[in-house]
Amino acid sequence: MLENLYKQGIKTPSAEEIQQITARLRVYGHIEGKNVFYWFQNHKARQRQKQKQDNMAYFNRLLHRPHPIYPSPPIYPN
C-alpha cells in the first residue's frame, strides 16, 4: 500500500495524510504515524541513492566503452 501511494506521487505526505494512511494500515496491526513518516522518508532517500548509483553506472559505461577506430587520414607528399 505504501509503495503504491509513493508511485502515485505521494513522496512527502502531510500530517493529515499520515494520519489517514496510519488509520488504514491499523487493520493489519499496531502502527503509529511516525512509522509511516519514517517509511516515506527512508524510501525517498533510498530512491535518491539508487538514482545516483544508476547515473554513476551509466556515466562509467560511457567513459569505458570501446572507442571506435577511425582510419588515419591519407598522407600526401608535398
If helices are DSSP runs of H or I spanning 4 or more residues, what is the number of helices? 3
Between the first and last Cα atoms, what is the distance in angstroms? 76 Å
How many extended strands? 0
Overall shape: it is: rod-shaped
Q: Which structural class matches the secondary elements? A: mainly alpha
| Helical amount | 55-70%
Whole-number mean pLDDT = 92
DSSP strand (E) fraction? Answer: under 5%
Number of domain modules: 1
Low-pLDDT regions:
none
Rounded to an integer in angstroms, the radius of gyration calculated over CA atoms is 25 Å
Largest sheet: none
The H/E string reads: HHH
Task: Describe the structure concisely.
With 78 residues, this protein is mostly helical. It has helices spanning 2-7, 15-25, 33-64. The longest helix is centred in the middle third of the chain and has 32 residues, at 33-64.
